[in-house]
Structure formats: structure tokens, C-alpha cells
Amino acid sequence: MNFKIDEFQKSLIDWYLEEKRDLPWRKNNDPYRVWVSEVMLQQTRVDTVIPYFERFMEKYPTVADLAEADEQDLLKVWEGLGYYSRVRNLHHAVKEVHEKYGGKVPDTKEAFGSLKGVGPYTTGAVLSIAYGKPIPAVDGNVMRVMSRIFNMDDDIAKVKTRKLFEGLVEKVISHEDPSSFNQGLMELGALICTPKNPSCLLCPVRDFCMAFHEGTQNDLPVKKKVKKGKTVQYISFILEDEKGNIIVRQRPSEGLLASLWEFPNHEVLSKWKNMVTDFESMLGKELGIEVDVIEPICVIDHVFSHLTWKIHAFRARFRGDFVESEVQKVIPIEKVENYPFPVPYQKIWKAFKKLRGME
DNA sequence: GAGTCGTGGAC
DNA sequence: TGTCCAAGACT
């Protein structure tokens, strides 16, 4: 097959300019705006991101606004979007841009690419879209599209393969319009060159595609399967006093769901005889209060990328002097939702409200 | 290089 | 219910 680069570029870019979706972050090319969208879109679907992006840009329209933001407020805006270190890293990086670059997002690979949370993909995406730089932006879409166009069976789960594709894109990227070229590859992957049942008959670069030529498009890309993680059981109490106050606590600042809030809980240990009574007495000693379980709320199965939680949630009442701290508080029931909670605890809270007839 | 780090939608 | 993800980065 005779692969003419300029014809390939034109076919892809013409198609993109004609068919691109009208998405909120495509309203203009403000580098900060593009940057925020790219961070939100990491491993996250477009439909999920849209409402979060709108709210985020309304609350933090500029670098200066975000630089001055409060960490807990940011987590609340990000609540439910997942991969919470993204927003912490973004905050850190934006503060650096604010202080070190006077609020102007740097336009070089070296400066922008060394910011926290900005990897090879985000570097290429932001610099090509916002500044028109011919730098590859290789994500899952691009690897799928390229592996089909060049009929390559390299395992796209490997870092080495991403680098291979970056080298390839460098050779074929348009220097006229790098933005439309990069976005065109991704848009093609999202709309036409889909993981399953690609719409090859509608594809603008079908004539350049070796996999279509060979009929191998359904076998590509090759990706090693990830093994699913183990299940860990937890027991959790929503603890109320007579006045309707609730105990909440903050998770550690590093690791899974860092700095988000939750209800008191503990992993169910195999040495326990009865998780309800064992946790009841353990919590009572730990917090210096009397704890009485009232009734079960629900059981939540929550699947993460690498493990599963099974949480047994109960209503309970507490009496005595609870000692508060920065990470462990008694708050009025109507203020619970001011705190950022991960989804499994949101579900428990919702079930609790229903049980108590609060909705 | 292999784990860690979320969530909800499609099939 | 199970599987595979979706515009990745960090350790």
C-alpha cells in the first residue's frame, strides 16, 4: 500500500473539521481551559466529564482563581469523578504557573511537561490544541487507531508501545494544523474506530488502513488482560447522638481516596466472631464513647480498578464525650453533604436517609 | 515494569 | 453478574 502522508493528513483533518462534536472545552483554545479538560478526560468518558467541566470552569474560570482555591472545596467539586490525585496535582501545578509564570501556561514541552500531573499525553494535547505545536498526543484512542492503520500487534498496555506510537505520530503529524490532526485521531477513535465493531465503511482514512485492507481490524489492538483484584470486607457505622449529629472522619492524605471523608469503619478481621459486636466495642474504646447498634442500613459492593470493597453499613447511636480533631468530627446532620465523600459512602448515606425517612 | 489510583456505561 | 473499558500519571 502506498501511504501518502499529506493525503492522510488532509483526509483526517477535513473529516474532523466537518464531524467534530460540539463540546464545552472546544468553545475556545484558552490553554488553562484546555488543560483542565484534558486532566478531567484522563481515563474518563466525555459524557461523564461535561457537567463536571461546566461547574469547574464556572467556579474557577482562571489560573488565578484555581491557584487561590481551597483544597476541600476542590475535592467537593471533583466528588464522584474519581482519581482524586488528579485535582490535587492540578492544583499544585496551577499554583506553580500562577507564581512562577505569572499565570501564563508555559508553551514548551520542557516547562509544561514537568508540571505535576502532566504526562506525555497531556503535554502533547495541551500544547498542540492551545498553542499549535506539532507534538504527539498518544492516548488509548490514538494507539487503537494507529495499531489498525499500520496493522501492528504490539501490546498497547506496555509503556514501550506508547513510545513507539509517539515516534510514529511524529512522522505523520500535520505541521499545518497539529491541533486538528491530534484531535482528529482521538475523535476518529471515539466515533468511528471504536474498540468493538468499528464503522470502517464510514471511515475517512479507510484507504490508508492496513488492518481494513487485511481484514484484521476486529483483532486489533492487542491488549494484555488485567487480573481483577481481591475483595476486602468492611463494617461501617453511621453514628448519631440524641440531637441528630453525625460522626464523620477524613481519610489519610495519601493513598486510595486520599483526603476524602467517610463514616467510621474497619476492615472485618478473620479473628472477629461477630463483626457488629466486635466493631461496636472496638469503636467505643477507641473513641471513648458508648455505641449501640440500631439496625442495618445496606451492603455496598464497590469495584475499584484493582480491588473490591464490600461494606456492611449499620445505624448506631452514641453517648458520651466524643473528642473532635481536624480529621474526626461531630457535625449536624444537614451539613454532612458539605463534605466530599467517595461514591460508596454516598450510597450508604443515601440508603441511611431513606431508612430514616429524610427524603 | 508492574501496581496504584475511581467511576459509571455499554454489552 | 461479569467484562472491558475512557482523552493517563505517578511510584
UniProtKB/TrEMBL annotation:
Its EC number is 3.2.2.31. InterPro entries: A/G_AdeGlyc_MutY, DNA_glycosylase, Endonuclease3_FeS-loop_motif, HhH-GPD_domain, HhH_base_excis_C, MIG/MutY, MutY_C, NUDIX_hydrolase-like_dom_sf. Keywords: 4Fe-4S, DNA damage, DNA repair, Glycosidase, Hydrolase, Iron, Iron-sulfur, Metal-binding. SMART domains: ENDO3c (SM00478), FES (SM00525). It catalyses: Hydrolyzes free adenine bases from 7,8-dihydro-8-oxoguanine:adenine mismatched double-stranded DNA, leaving an apurinic site. Binds 1 [4Fe-4S] cluster. The keyword Endoplasmic reticulum does not apply. Residues 40-191 form the HhH-GPD domain. Pfam families: EndIII_4Fe-2S (PF10576), HhH-GPD (PF00730), NUDIX_4 (PF14815). This is Adenine DNA glycosylase. It comes from Pallidibacillus thermolactis.
